Amino acid sequence: xxxxxxxxxxxxxxxxxxxxxxxxxxxxxxxxxxxxxxxxxxxxxxxxxxxxxxxxxxxxxxxxxxxxxxxxxxxxxxxxxxxxxxxxxxxxxxxxxxxxxxxxxxxxxxxxxxxxxxxxxxxxxxxxxxxxxxxxxxxxxxxxxxxxxxxxxxxxxxxxxxxxxxxxxxxxxxxxxxxxxxxxxxxxxxxxxxxxxxxxxxxxxxxxxxxxxxxxxxxxxxxxxxxxxxxxxxxxxxxxxxxxxxxxxxxxxxxxxxxxxxxxxxxxxxxxxxxxxxxxxxxxxxxxxxxxxxxxxxxxxxxxxxxxxxxxxxxxxxxxxxxxxxxxxxxxxxxxxxxxxxxxxxxxxxxxx
Length: 353
What we know:
Layout: H1 2-14, E1 48-53, H2 61-76, E2 81-86, H3 94-103, E3 107-111, H4 113-116, H5 136-143, H6 146-157, E4 160-176, E5 190-193, H7 197-205, E6 209-212, H8 218-224, E7 229-233, H9 234-239, E8 248-264, H10 265-270, H11 273-307, E9 311-313, H12 317-327, H13 334-337, H14 344-352
Parallel strand pairs: 1-2, 1-3, 5-6, 5-7, 8-9
Antiparallel strand pairs: 3-8, 4-7, 4-8
Helix pairs in contact: 1-3, 2-11
């Protein structure tokens, strides 16, 4: 709620930006022919250039997928639409970029359901809560459901448009400076989490001491001992070079993480229908490429980190079930479920099973 209040206050500042962002997609009207003269040729459309920001570093699957999207959109649009890529949080944090999008800035950013819940769609947080899916197929079944479309409509009222939701960010695990072999080893462990309540609460219930922090600050914080570990998919753990400052990975597999690419709703609606189709379809195609990369590269990431001195701890099913049981308390926590319909967990599980 605090996030929404802050954003609504900022809307007054950004109101003048709205409605101007898609002007590059319009074409000048053709002058009517007079006296049998040949009409003047139609002026070429002004190129639309869109900045895309994300925290992942060059070479990670997310970054490679963005390069693929950049190429696909340029080809599909005949060069009239261009993506400018800014990895490594060059345009700001996820929170900063989302605020810019809500204010009307014509930028695109990566996001996830737990984060988007703060922008008028509280139920969507469950889509990236711990152990909600048993497979990636269940995840995609949810993002293609009518329930998901309802969440998209709620976000649109806050100025957020989901371009595509078919990106696997990966299966999240923990990486720490000391070994975690059992859930008892989590007690008091200072773990960096994203700035979203469901993540922080889940790790509290696992016994850890979660600390919210921007992705770009985690390496230094771990190096300095401010935090004792972090959680993320293998691609991010490797891409951010955390193996240099933390030497243990425990395969908790606590979240199968889908991500979404978002832009301002008015900006998207200001594009022509053809431009909207180009942007959406090429983003979805790049998402399929991203998911392929995630599958292909994970084993190599693990091998490379082991070569750099990292010990990978694979929990037994019995031990992993203890992590699942502890984190399941988030589904009954009123600070997380505020705004949810009664029985949402069971509703979602029935929907995807």
